[in-house]
Here is the input.
Amino acid sequence: MDAQEWLAEGFEANRAHLRAVAYRMLGSPSEADDAVQEAWLRLSRADTGGVENLGGWLTTVVARVCLNMLAARSSRREEPLGVHLPDPAGGSEDGIDPEQEALLADSVGPALLVVLDTLTPAERLAFVLHDLFAVPFDEIAAILGRSPAAARQLASRARRRVQGSSPDPAADRRRQRAVVDAFLAASRGGDFEALLALLDPDVVLRADPAAVQAGAAAEVRGAREVAGTFSGRARFARPALVDGAAGAVWAPGGQPRVVFGFTIADGRVVEIELLADPERLRQLDLAILDD
Here is the structure.
């Protein structure tokens, strides 16, 4: 068996799993098929010589494809293509028969899909991969470009929503924004003690390579160190919604240059991300708010 045949056989062995992941991520059978097909195209072009776990590699690829599709959908404010539930009267292009389609629909349920559609792309990915497919948080963090702690927090927030115990999303955003607004005010005013009160003792500040190139530290750990980094600064940062969560942005002339992503738990900031990569910024669902 040559390498291409081995890849094709391995892909077919994982196809049902990949489609299940994509369907829960996207809520649309046709989009799930598109995501799985894109995973095959990437597999066929990739150098897989060092891949030890083909199933895990493919799951990561499908998750990233779905994340991009969700981000594009959010930026266009679109509903998912097609209907949420497969039509048990029809087949599918990849050969899954109507009975399998019906079983897939029953295993997800329309109520869960409706709730999943209320999550941000990052929350949905963290919840689906961890809670439904037992993917470890360190692997989820690598897909999202965030820390395992942030991935865990995203899944926890999504889980509360799914279980019906989450507070009203608008009220949750108001609480998040109150923390971010207080953080920005303390930063601008150089109020070191106020910053400390808003930061978790183990808070982590991370910057992407573009932000590092502009002068930011790649990583800062601890409340006192992070507070020292921001004290007297962020004068021109404006509050914003970043993928539906409270954050901030530096946008001279209305053009986003640096986005500050906040992960907030129990009224304190546990992680701050500085994002300056133009391509990454274009993929964000970003709304600048009034001060």
